[in-house]
Amino acid sequence: MVATYDVLSPWAETDPMPLQGITPRVPELRGKRIGLYANYKRAASPIQDAVESELRARYGSEITITRFAQHGSSDIASSDEGPSFVEWLNKEVDTVIVAVGD
Amino acid sequence: MYDTIFAEQNQKPAVALVNEGFVHDARSAAAGKGMPGARFVPQTVPCECTVTNKIEAGVRAAMGDVIAALTMPLKPEEEAPAPRPTEATRGAVFSGDLSEVQRFFYKRGWTDGLPILPPTREAVDEMLSGTDLPPDHVVGKMIPRLGKATVEKIAINAVMAGALPTAMSLLIAGAEAVLDPQSSFGIFEVSTGSWAPFYVINGPIREQLRINGGTGALSPGDLANATIGRAMGLMVKNLGGARKGVEDMGVLGNPAKYAMVLAENEEASPWEPLHGDNCVTVSFPNSYVQIVPRGTDADGIVGTIKDRLGASWRQVTLLVCPSHAQTLADAGWTRERLVEHFQRLRPEVPSTGVGRLSGSESVSVVVAGGPGAWIGLVMGVGRWVSRPICLPKNWDQLVKRYRDHAPNYLRY
Question: If you average pLDDT over residues B358-376, what whole number do you get?
Fold first, then answer.
């Protein structure tokens, strides 16, 4: 007779995560302030250089571009840079492009 | 994606540019943060690329999608995401013979690719005899899923790994060490760098569990070393939920993710141990190299280590075999002097990347190994985190019960 095993799950429980929708989009980029955020990875800022160049080629002076480069190496929300990032978002940005370098 | 989500949470519509190989990672990260609709655009710029024309070409190809992601109206599921069904985590989740259990666990992604011991109620209860903590005690929540590392779930993964109940208190301390923010586990576990946890054990528990710190300490063959490392790896996978190619984006991977555990060879060391009592220390190296010194005098040993470290290291654990440790001690080198000497040689930490995770201490010296001339350099970034191991009240009986569980090699 072959033994049968009733086995328990090694998978952990998690607390329920409240679900959130994303923020409504801007109708178009013309006239908007576009924030280019680069995380700490070395390709992120060069990617944003290329993004800026592409945006200018398409929109010229009809958009405003503002940059924020992370200096730490963790999730910006929980880092020392979090407050300055939020301030940048609130004061200088209508919509954000995030480059993570990966 | 976390930074993108943070922007969204601050009411700014955002889109992330991610390398096309990270699409699953991005989707998982967004779902894990409760914002499954967070927008991202796959692009072809290679990871960490420094070649301008490749960056420009990849961005140019993706710009249309980026603009669309910033301006196209939301779909209903982006505005109000629906909850997804969740995996059952309590009670018996499968019944079958040994082969069927193996297939079930493997297909679920719950193993490390090797066969597991079935975690039956009886086996888990026996494992729980190794701790006084209640089964529902939460040691912490493990990134990236924030899965609750309860004592019972630790025990289940320990059974799967083939660990003995005497390992439970060590595994709980190991989980605490890994979950300490100082360990930067949350970054290392998912990094492209394939950083693997390396555990050094101190104290009387080494001998009681027969954790090898002598000949072949890092080779297979010692139940304690193998199963403790394996159990920790299974915990990281099943409690934290770091799946290879989804959250764990290690480019090449690392065999040390199976197990890299050793005991400090305190008895053969001329110095005070790394820690005076039962303790587990974790760090996250991604490379391990062994060298033979050009001379076995103190200058030869120290000079060879210096040359091999070279010009771009961040953190090193030096595994010094007993004979070299004695030679160094006879020449006046203490562990502290060795640490200071090599720490002074550390190159400046770069301003980008995981190098920033390094602390002011960058060198550790551990006496390990058997007779011979080889020295180990275990190299990474980041910090060492230590935790005391709290033993249960029935410790002496527990050790006695499993004492004979040791190899008895065939003599030939």
Answer: 92
Nearest to B97 among A4, A51, A71 (CB): A4
Q: Do the Cβ atoms of B156 and A71 come within 8 Å?
A: no
pLDDT of residue B354: 64
In sequence order, which residues have a C-beta less than 8 Å from that of residue B70 and are 6 or more positions away? A25, A26, A29, A34, A95, A97, B13, B15
Alpha-carbon distance B318 to A58, whole Å?
Answer: 55
pLDDT (0 to 100) of residue B85? 82
Angle (CA) B219 B224 B228, round 5°: 95
Please give the Cα distance from B125 to B110 (Å, whole number).
Answer: 20
Give the closest-approach CA distance of A61 to chain B in angstroms.
16
pLDDT at B356: 65
- What was the pLDDT predicted at B342? 95
In whole angstroms, give the CA distance from residue B363 to residue B327: 19
Return all residues near B244 (Cβ < 8 A) that are at least 6 apart: B250, B253
**What element of type H or E holds B365?**
strand B363-367
Token pair for residue A47?
A: 């990617």
Predicted ipTM of the assembly? 0.94
Average pLDDT over residues B179-194: 91
Q: What percent of chain B has pLDDT over 70?
A: 97
DSSP for residue B109: T
Q: Which residues of B touch A54 (CB under 8 A)?
A: 59-60, 63
Kindly list the structural domains of chain B, giving each domain's residue range(s) and its CATH number in brackets, ordered by start: 2-79 (no CATH), 96-269+394-412 (no CATH), 285-381 (3.30.2320)
Average pLDDT for chain A: 94
Contact present, A36 and B347 (Cβ < 8 Å): no
Bigger pLDDT: B88 or B376?
Answer: B376
Secondary structure letter of residue A25 according to DSSP: P
For the residues A28-36, what does the mean pLDDT come to?
97
Strand partners, B150: B138
Q: Do A50 and B39 touch (CB under 8 A)?
A: no
pLDDT confidence band for B405 (50 / 70 / 90): confident
Asked whether the beta carbons of residue A75 and residue B91 sit closer than 8 angstroms, the reply is no
B chain contacts of residue A41, beta-carbon cutoff 8 Å: 48, 352-353
The answer, for B39 touching chain A at a CB cutoff of 8 Å, is: yes
Measured between CA atoms, how close is A97 to chain B, in angstroms?
A: 5
Please name the residues between 274 and 333 in chain B that touch chain A, using a CB distance below 8 Å. Answer: none
Give kind and range of the element (H or E) at residue B69.
Answer: helix B52-71
d(CA A76, CA A69): 11
